Queue: 4 jobs
Job 1
Amino acid sequence: MSKTLVIAVGGNALPTVNPRDTSDLERMLQPVIDFAEQGMDVVLTYGNGPQVGVIYEGMLDLAQKHSDISEILMASTGAMSEGSIGSLIRFALRNICLARNKFFKVTTVITHTLVDHEDPAFDNPTKPVGRFLSEQEAENMRAEGRTIVEDSGRGYRWVVPSPKPQRILEFRSIRTLMDAGHIVLACGGGGIPTIRHDNREETVEAVIDKDAASALLAHELKADSLFLLTGVPQVAVDFGKPTQRWVDHMSRDEALALMKDGQFPAGSMLPKIEAALNFVENNANGEALITSIDCLAEALAGKTGTRITLN
């Protein structure tokens, strides 16, 4: 039976990619095709936090200048970024295949994710979107009624509601494509937030955490491994302090203890730890690996990365 991998690529790895030149992205994603060549089933998810905010700001600016342009919805900009980033990654993966004279079908699925319309997250925005802001820009946005937070010492960010994903609505389509041999790109930006209310489905203004949605999809697919890619090769304890140390492995209980100790900042590593725990708690034989995109192959081989398991 083939091994199933779900690989979650952060949106911060993508803004600098030139849409007319995917060579950098191709370099980063070489291991994805390596895994496919080894007979593994690969599903790749991706973030859109920086992009969705930039698109929203641009569309909002147009709507304010031109009365014939209708109001832009966060869900609409989520769909735009999910499609554009998915297309970019698809081209990069296909170009790797063509360079190797290999034929793997690569398919992007525009994904909708069901959330609860009464989720308390709607009253407590936490998901950073858009670019980093200056102090003056942050003050201006606060005056507009938006929630602005300081993001892990890196600057100010606009934050929006991030409800908990309950179900990946295109799961059966993703499963069918995967079983047919496709490398599937799904859950872009966590998927388009969708609620069911009065026997109808509709979008809702929010951005779902990509790592949480990836963990849910990995659980539904009964994946063997969930990769949560970030900017460092491993998780660190006492990050940035003289006592900093890298962590090779954490059990569920060890991770919970470190979370309780405040080791993982809410704006950076905490969502990945929470997603990893959600996955292993629901998949006793599964493992979550947190590493950088450059260390993907080495992490799978057990040479780097932080491996999180139930025990």
Job 2
Amino acid sequence: MILDEIKKANVQALKERNQNARAVYSVVLTKAMLETVKKREKQEELTDADMVQILQKTIKELNDESESYKKANNLQQSNLIEEQKEILSKYLPKMLSEDEIFDIISKQENKTIPYIMKFFKENYAGKVDMSKVGIVLKKFN
């Protein structure tokens, strides 16, 4: 499970005294713990799909933060954030390419936007960029 891998990497970063890695792992682990509490209230378990969502959201937040530092001309801090994004990206599954998305859509009988979007959210959550699905879907309509 992704959470277990991140916990091990966090311990390793602690041993190596890698403050940058520890910082980003701490953020992700905290978010995972909060999500675990929410899931327990519903009698559910934290899944890898949940962890992928947490990682993607964290990377998006890091992107925004990095842009802010670049605008402020603080390249050192921006570089640290880029390093953190790389650390987290290792735990994400390989995303589907536009060609793969096109092939999946072409195999569907119903090519309406709501159906295809729902299909990808249910079957490929965390493995596909939904904006890419929208772009590829426009080629069919």
Job 3
Amino acid sequence: MEEQKTHRKVRTGIVVSDKMEKTIVIRVDRMAKHSLYGKPVLRSKKFMAHDEKNDCRIGDKVLIGETRPLSARKCWEVLEIIERAPVLGVQFEEEDA
């Protein structure tokens, strides 16, 4: 039997929301040429993705892949966390020795 090759889409983006349970919102940016003037313009689109372990935070750079529909708007899943965002609000006290 022949093996079926799956050509599922893969995108890289930044997490903009992690407020939901097992779901994150990712903003994917791309450069497109303006239709009239030809100048490069930044275009962005938001995707909802499934995060099974709830370990993504706002600002993380993630790789998402297409999957079967999991809800009305969610048909992507987190494949890996490429880069972690720094944790804000955490201050370390310096010890005076």
Job 4
Amino acid sequence: MASITVRSLDEDLKRRLRKRAAENGRSVEQEVREILPAALNQEAAPARNLGSAIHKLFKPFGHTELDIPPREAMREFQHFDETLDDVRS
């Protein structure tokens, strides 16, 4: 079995850990042995991206189909090779 040492533990966290261990009738060390596997064996929540978050937020409102506007002819390409004097005249 491996051993670990945890330094610079927050005093409040240490106090709460001691209290929890006492409530469960265990030593602090045994309490940590119980907490670590439980915390590490939990399935990680699937990563969500912004699109999924937005979808989840608006899903209760139902689906809305939007009309796609017709494409228009492209505007004429702007040529920047003219000099400022050519543009002003």
